[in-house]
Amino acid sequence: MATRRPTAAAKARPKAAAKKTASPTRAAKAAKKPLVTLAVDIGGTGVKTMLLDESGSPVSERLRDETPKPAEPMPIIDIIVAQAAKHGSFDRVSVGFPGVVHDGVVATAPNLDNSWAGVDLAATLSERLGKPARVLNDADVQGFGAIAGKGVELVVTLGTGLGSALFVDGRLVPNLELAHHAFRDGKTYEECVGAKALSKLGKKRWNKQVRKAIEQLDHAINYHALFIGGGNAKKLEGDLPARTSVVSNACGLLGGIALWRN
Ligand code: BGC
């Protein structure tokens, strides 16, 4: 009986590679499947989720629930898990959190609840959802969705709180917390331009305050570009200062794809 002798090329080929060329395994096929990211944006008034494809484009509708009061960890995590179940399958999770976050662990949550301090949100969500999870500050995530990736770019979000994020040639300086620093009249930036200030001052005076805050930040940081996002950015009126543009609040979810870039 004739036996088939391996050719010189087949002999030279490592075994695994020879197998792969002959018939792609199921694992290899699965590895080529585009990864879907569950993007989560936890805010002072709403908890939002959406699925993104590998390019960061939405592949599901956006789901939103009111942030529970008190805004403690478990009720918010339960909302995320319930929304995730409605979306269908995904491979990984990106979260924007409204406070300082170090390696997935929450340090502060000024507009949610003090009980968040020390919560390992990345580990908890990963366990509840059965997928790897990464967590960054919400303004940092929003920034990734907004910036051009060139020079010094500052991102400010006007929502319940005041978010801030700084990027140098597309690289994040994480957890820039301008919100609670002194701005004017003994008040912080967040006290002067956050949601409470908007409802107290009214649109016109709030707009003036925002412009003053921008002026001061420009002098302090000397950015090349400023992007303003967050739910209240749409309340800005009149011409914007130089090098400033308003970006969609959707960036808070769309930026989530950047958490999985190397
Ligand atoms: C927090 C920031 C957060 C911002 C917007 C501020 O109160 O300190 O970490 O990015 O609110 O949510």
Describe this structure in words.
- The protein is α/β, with parallel strands linked by helices.
- It folds into 2 domains: 37-140, 2-Layer Sandwich (Nucleotidyltransferase, domain 5), CATH 3.30.420; 148-246, 2-Layer Sandwich (Nucleotidyltransferase, domain 5), CATH 3.30.420.
- The chain has helices at residues 8-12, 15-22, 26-32, 73-87, 121-129, 138-146, 189-193, 195-201, 203-221, 251-254, and strands at 37-42, 46-52, 63-66, 92-97, 101-102, 105-106, 133-137, 152-158, 162-168, 171-173, 182-184, 187-188, 225-229, 244-246.
- The strands form 4 sheets. It has a 5-stranded mixed sheet with strand order 3-2-1-4-7. Strands 10-9-8-13-14 form a 5-stranded mixed sheet.
- Helix 8 packs across helix 9.
- The protein is globular.
- The structure holds beta-D-glucopyranose.
- The site of beta-D-glucopyranose has 16 residues, from helix 6 and strand 9.
The geometry reads as globular
Number of helices in the DSSP assignment: 10
Please estimate the helix content.
25-40%
Q: Output the helix-strand order.
A: HHHEEEHEEEHEHEEEEEHHHEEH
First-to-last CA distance: 54 Å
Overall number of strands? 14
Strand content: 15-25%
Cα Rg:
23 Å
Q: Look at the helices and sheets and give the structural class.
A: alpha/beta
Q: In CATH, what is the class of the largest domain?
A: Alpha Beta
> What would CATH call the homologous superfamily of the largest domain?
ATPase, nucleotide binding domain
